[in-house]
Structures are given as structure tokens and as C-alpha cells.
Amino acid sequence: MLVNLLFYTFAVLAVLGAVGLIFFRHPMNGAMCFVGTLICLAGLYALLSAKLIFALQLIVYAGAIMSLIVFIIMFLNIQPEDLPKEETKLFYIIGGVVLVSPVALFLGKIINTLPNLRVDFVGGDFGGVKPVGLILFKDWLVPFEIVSILLLISLVGAVVLAGKKGMSK
Amino acid sequence: MIHNYLFLSIILFCLGIVGVVSRRNFFAVFMSIELMLNAGNLAFIAFSRIHVSMDGHVLAMMVMAVAAAEAALALAVVILLHKHKGKLDTNVFSLLKG
């Protein structure tokens, strides 16, 4: 019962945050709504007994990535008159909903064919640091190394792009 | 019960697509892309709960790493473009049109 209540609370708040992200004009308001969505998603991961992902969602997504985005938004010091005029926004939103809703209904049909099992908490070590780490370093070692190379490349790229002043001219 | 999580994932993904299509502000488009990645993560976690196996958790961690790399690069690029043009409009950023 409590699990159902928590699920519906988190789900409604997550959808409201996403709608706010689409509708707010200033990116700062949208970023705050999106942080709310991310925290609600972390709660949903906890309900699905994914303990490590719950912590990582809070630390990496809501903590690191969103603070980076908010930092850049504040760094650029955006005034309301600098924002692009979006007179056609509502029109495009309605068009996008019309375009996307058949795909969503189709996916919903597909999901209805799956077995609908109850979400109970999985006991033991499911989703803890140790079993996930064992799977990560046994079965997923090559993708892990590729992701490390990707992070290295993005680090070098960010440094090259941000420190361009002396190099290009 | 588990269907509700997957329905929520679909709803969030579609909202992300609508955001990418309808907005012209760079940051709104970027955060809509992040929203789509998060919807994918939710589907991964829900399916790994269905099968009680932890491969979905590992994939969600990979998606988070890709999102972090993307955020670092995209924000560096947008700072450069904002220095050049002084605007945040994605229509102004069409520099590669040829």
C-alpha cells in the first residue's frame, strides 16, 4: 500500500517536472524542474530495489551533471531579453504530441503483452555495490574500458575547446 | 504493477521528444535529451527487476557515464558559441549548413 502511494507520488512529480521543463521559458526554472524529476526517478529506482543506481542517480546526475548545467546557465548570466523568442512553441508542442502519441500507444500495447508481476523488494544483495561490481568487471569489462576511453576523449575535447584562445590564432 | 514503471518511462521519453522538437532554447533542448536518457535508464532498471538480474544496472551506469561526457562537451561548445554569437537560439547555431 505504502509502496503504491510512493510510486504514484514519485511518478506524478516526475511527469510534472518534465512538463515544467518543456513549458518554462527561462532555462533556470526548467533546470530546477528537471532536478525534481531526477530526484523522483532516484526514488523510483529505490522502489525497484536498485540500491547502487539510486545512490549514483543522486550523486552523479542530480549532483554533478545538473550542478554543471546550472553553473553554466548562471555563468552565461542570461537575461530574459537574451532568450530566443518562441512564439511558435505551443504550436510545435501540440504537433509533437500528435506525432508522438501513436508511437507511445503502440509501445503501451507491447508492454501490455508482458507479464505484470508485483513489485516487491528483492532481499539479499540485489543491486548492491558488490554484485553489480562483480558483473561490471566480469561480463562488461570491454564496454567499461570503452566508456573510460570515451570519458578521456571528452576530457581532452573540453580542455581543447575551452582553452582555445592562445591556440587558434 | 511493473507495467506502471514502463508506462512512466514511455511518457517521460515522449515528453523528451516533444521538448526537443518544440523548444529553441539550447539549454531546454539539452535537458530534454537528458530526460530521454533518464527514461531509458528507468526502462533498463524495470526490466532488470523483471528478470531479477543485474545487467540492467550496469547498462544504466554506462548511460550515466555517456551523459556526463556529453554534458561536458556540449557545455564547452555552447560557451564558445555564446561567445561568438551572444545568443542561445538553436536556429542561430546552424553554422554547418554549407
Q: How would you describe this structure to a colleague?
A:
The complex is a heterodimer of chains A (about 170) and B (about 100). Chain A has 7 helices and no strands. Chain A is globular, with a radius of gyration of 21 Å. With about 170 residues, chain A is mostly helical. Chain A has helices spanning about 1-25, 25-45, 50-75, 90-110, 130-140, 140-160, 165-169. Chain B is an all-alpha fold and about 100 residues long. Chain B has 3 helices and no strands. Chain B starts with a helix and ends in a 13-residue tail after the last helix. The mean pLDDT of chain B is about 90. Chains A and B meet through helix 1, helix 2, helix 3, helix 4 and helix 5 of A and helix 1, helix 2 and helix 3 of B.
> Which sheet architecture does the biggest sheet of chain A show?
none
Multimeric organization: heterodimer
Instruction: Determine the N-to-C terminus distance of chain B.
Output: 51 Å
Reading the helices and strands of chain B in chain order gives HHH
> What's the helix-strand series of chain A?
HHHHHHH
Rough shape of chain B? elongated
- Mean pLDDT over the residues of chain B: 90
The total of beta strands of chain B comes to 0
Distance between the termini of chain A: 65 Å
Share of residues in helices of chain B: over 70%
